[in-house]
Give the backbone structure.
Amino acid sequence: MFFLGFVLALVVYYYLARYTVKAVATRYPGKLARYFTITVFVFIPIWDVVPGHLYFSYLCGQDGGVKVFKTVEAEPSYFLPNGEPDQSKLSEAYFYQTKLHESFSPLFHITKSSGLLQERQNGMILGTATAFSYYGGWINANIFPQGPPSRCPDYLVHGALWTQVVKPRRTSSLGGN
């Protein structure tokens, strides 16, 4: 049913464009007005793809990724066997908050996911993690919203924030004779 509606919309759009080009050609004889009208109808469905992708790339370069303000050391018991920090144990001393901004850029269909890691004791911010998702132009975002978005950075920033902020405590071995 959806496909039938989509095809019907394309047919209506085609005939609307054709009627408009003929109307413009009768009022303004010459090829320039006709070509301009055709160009407008071609670009209406895709007008926001290029500026949206450029804005998404700009956001990724400026704000995307992990920013570490201070690293902390923890005992080896606060780490999982694979070497990653155990977030459930560390949550006693550190607070991690995430926020999803679904309407970050409704014009370009960009969402923002941000995280903040801070010490519970004094509220000091240890680091932030920011990821962006781009859902394409208005056609892709509205007609095919289930499609996978473009994401940046391409790694899981929220897990990487813990790994980059919390380091295993180094044990000093006093060697000597």
In short: The chain has a mean pLDDT of 88. The chain has six helices and seven strands. The two ends are 83 Å apart (CA to CA).
